[in-house]
Amino acid sequence: MSIANLHKGYGPDIRILKGLDIDMKPGERLVVIGPSGGGKSTLLRVVMGLEQIDGGIITFGGKRYIAAEQPGRTFIDVKIRREIGMVFQHYTLFPHLNVLQNLILAPCKVRGEAKSAASARAMALLARFGLEAKAKAYPAQLSGGQKQRVAIARALMLDPKLLLFDEVTSALDPELVAEVEQVILQIANQGMPMMIVTHDMWFAKNIASRVVFCAGGVVVEDGPPEQVLGSPREERTREFINRVFHIQP
Question: Between 20 and 30 A from 146 (CA), which of 19, 54, 205, 232?
Fold first, then answer.
């Protein structure tokens, strides 16, 4: 995926992304960090096709995916958008459906997959994530870590070619972060490309193959995690690491 000269704002006075550029390589686990208001979550929502853009272009698999065509109009290739999955901070599970029903809803409704086939795939995913016994449980009966693992399984049900994670550990107790981290690593080890926004530095260090630091709507620093998090080159990155994460470069 390639993101070139991406601009996004809300009205004439609020500019969030100001010419952001990122080239993502196959199989990468790209972690995006930066100060609040720096455009990280907005970037994910744009890549997911949930937001209009004001300028720039995103290509996916060498094809035009999202592009600003004229003021107030954004081109989005819906077919490509279906190849991208997103996991949100607050799970977004349907509370009136049990775990199995949450997983099979989209494949059955969007793709017309037979309920029996979707259920078999869903149960295999739940078993893989240690959640097989929770298939008939409702979201209110699950821990935060279990809900997030279910949300990840649900995203995988549509066989995405890219997964986006928006602050997926920030609502979890520290001991539950490891549960989710292990699931994401398991998926990553099978070659799934990922773009992950997080405020959790330890999570970033454990999961990233590459880290991008964004501030002021642009990429300030980009490199391997040990470099960006351990020995940042840019003063703005060093200030952020020291102040927010208390890690000395």
Answer: 205
**Mean pLDDT of the residues in the chain:** 91
Q: How many CB atoms lie within 10 A of CB 245?
A: 16
183-195 tens-digit pLDDT:
898 898 888 999 9
Lookup: tokens for 202: 């330890």
Q: Which residue has the tokens 């995916």?
A: 65
Per-residue DSSP letter, 39: S
pLDDT in the model for residue 72: 76
What does pTM read for this prediction? 0.90
pLDDT band at residue 249 using 50, 70 and 90 as cut-offs:
very low
Q: What angle do CA 61, 29, 102 make, to 5 degrees?
A: 85
Helices (H) and strands (E) in the chain, counts: 9, 11
Strand-strand pairing, 194-197 and 218-223: unpaired
115-128 helix and 99-110 helix, angle to the nearest 10 degrees: 130
DSSP character for 38? S
Q: Is the dihedral of CA 235, 238, 244, 248 positive or negative?
A: negative
pLDDT at 91: 75
Backbone angles phi, psi at 175, to 5 degrees: -70, -20
* Torsion angles phi and psi, residue 167, rounded to 5: 50, 45
In this prediction, residue 15 has a pLDDT band, given cuts at 50, 70 and 90, of confident
For residue 172, give both structure tokens: 């979890």
Q: Hey, what CATH topology would domain 2-83+161-245 get? A: Rossmann fold (3.40.50)
Could you give the residue range(s) of every CATH 3.40.50.300 domain in the chain?
2-83+161-245
Q: What whole-number distance in Å separates Cα of residue 195 and Cα of residue 29?
A: 6
